[in-house]
Specification:
globular; Tetracycline Repressor, domain 2; mainly alpha; three-stranded mixed sheet; 3 domains
């Protein structure tokens, strides 16, 4: 059994030592009882050379499942190390949804060989799954659903299950369909085993279970599972015909991937980026957002340059100027983070966005006045100039109000434009708070001090 108390750091140390000393049997001992997801995490946590050597020691029986759990970029490097026959063998026992996830990453010839190795039913199911968009339920659903008719007895169903000898993982209920395959309800396993075998499925099934359209976004289904405490749910097409099921462990993967995506996008990075990718491709990816940030920094610098005379005459302005931009940036980032989270959870819409905007303006006004008084007092004590204290107080209030408005408006506008707010919202917000902060502070100083 897997030692659940052993940390990833400990396993990595053992792997590194074993590879360094060429004790490959130690590597085998480390990974022998690990789950595929744990092996995948180890692979993602190793530099390229050690990663390939570990991958060569992974048992072929779990190759396919490990490939499913690693990030896309790491998966590509592992696939490059495998020949066609190895890839086809690794994918042979995978579920249709798992095959669909891997299929588009495979070399063309390997994909064709894999299709040829399938029977007609498998090919049809794979093509049906691939027809759905990548982030839809249709790509996640499992086609190993056990479906029964409503007009049969529980005894017939029980005999059928005994004949199958095994049922798919995470099966808590059987799907009930009519003669044409339309979904009509579910029969829980608890009811199946606890009632008179002579009773009909129709008498015990639950007809009020909502089905999920295959085209529904996986993120929306994750919210549905959370709010309704679901373990599994039927997936149907537009005509109501049962296609498969979605289960809780797939939803856990969706939630994890969404959280990773949000975290990486906040820094302008791809959620699939390999931590141990070579220097050149990693530098290229990050250079894009550094370049965008540089452009916004030059915009802020240009605004400062407009008030060069004021800065030459009043040194205190240069000392205090970063405070205005910094306070606005922090206030705006708080609002932006809450707005992005609300959009991700589907909590923000046109019906409540105006209310949220008014709320954030109120919060910004209160905090703006509070901290403006504090900063003004410190500025007066520092420089002995009441006018400078009043100017920085006014600029702080203006910038924090602008930050509160921008924190709500920016993600809403970006989403409407089809741009991920988590990816670019912080860059736009920083530009707004810097420009408004410098413009208000230096503009007021120019009017009242010069």
């Amino acid at each position: 059994m897997t030692d659940t108390t052993e940390t990833l750091e400990s396993r990595l140390s053992r792997i590194h030592l074993a590879l360094e000393q060429e004790r490959l049997e130690w590597v085998d001992d480390v990974i022998a009882d690990l789950e595929p997801a744990e092996v995948a995490l180890l692979l993602e946590s190793l530099p390229p050379n050690e990663r390939i050597r570990l991958w060569e020691r992974v048992p072929q029986a779990v190759d396919g499942e490990v490939l499913l759990h690693v990030h896309d970029e790491v998966r590509t490097t592992l696939l490059e190390d495998m020949d066609h026959e190895e890839i086809v063998a690794a994918t042979a026992g995978l579920d249709t949804s798992d095959l669909a996830e891997l299929f588009e990453d495979l070399p063309r010839q390997v994909a064709e060989d894999m299709l040829r190795s399938m029977d007609e039913l498998q090919r049809a199911r794979l093509k049906e799954t691939l027809a759905f968009e990548e982030d839809s339920v249709g790509r996640l659903m499992r086609t190993d659903t056990i479906a029964v008719r409503a007009d049969v007895s529980l005894e017939t169903v029980q005999r059928f299950l005994r004949w199958k000898e095994d049922i798919p993982d995470n099966t808590d209920a059987l799907m009930v369909v009519d003669r044409n395959g339309h979904f009509v309800g579910v029969l829980s396993l608890a009811r199946l085993v606890a009632n008179d075998p002579d009773m009909a499925v129709a008498d015990l099934m639950d007809p009020d279970v909502d089905s999920i359209q295959g085209s529904m976004k996986s993120r929306d289904v994750a919210t549905l599972f959370q709010t309704h405490d679901l373990v599994s749910a039927p997936v149907v097409n537009q005509r109501g015909i049962l296609l498969g099921r979605i289960v809780i462990d797939d939803i856990v993967d969706v939630i994890r991937e969404d959280s990773e995506q949000a975290l990486m996008n906040m820094a302008g990075l791809d959620e699939e980026e390999d931590l141990f990718a070579p220097v050149l491709p990693s530098a290229k990816r990050r250079a894009v957002w550094l370049g965008i940030n540089l452009l916004t920094a030059f915009l802020a610098a240009w605004v400062i340059g407009l008030f060069e005379d004021a800065l030459d005459k009043v040194v205190a302005l240069a000392v205090l100027m970063p405070i205005v931009a910094s306070m606005g940036g922090i206030a705006g980032s708080q609002t932006l983070t809450l707005a992005i989270r609300g959009l991700a959870l589907g909590q923000i819409s046109r019906t409540n966005s105006n209310w949220l905007l008014r709320k954030e303006v109120g919060i910004s006004a209160l905090n703006g006045v509070l901290w403006a008084m504090v900063v003004a007092l410190l500025a007066v004590l520092w420089f002995g100039n009441l006018a400078i204290g009043a100017i920085i107080a006014a600029a702080l209030i203006i910038n924090m109000l602008a930050a509160g408005v921008a924190g709500i408006v920016i993600p809403l506008v970006l989403k409407r434009m089809g741009i991920d707010p988590a990816l670019s919202g912080s860059v736009v917000l920083t530009t707004v708070t810097d420009v408004v902060g410098f413009m208000s502070f230096l503009g007021l100083a120019t009017v009242f001090l010069l």
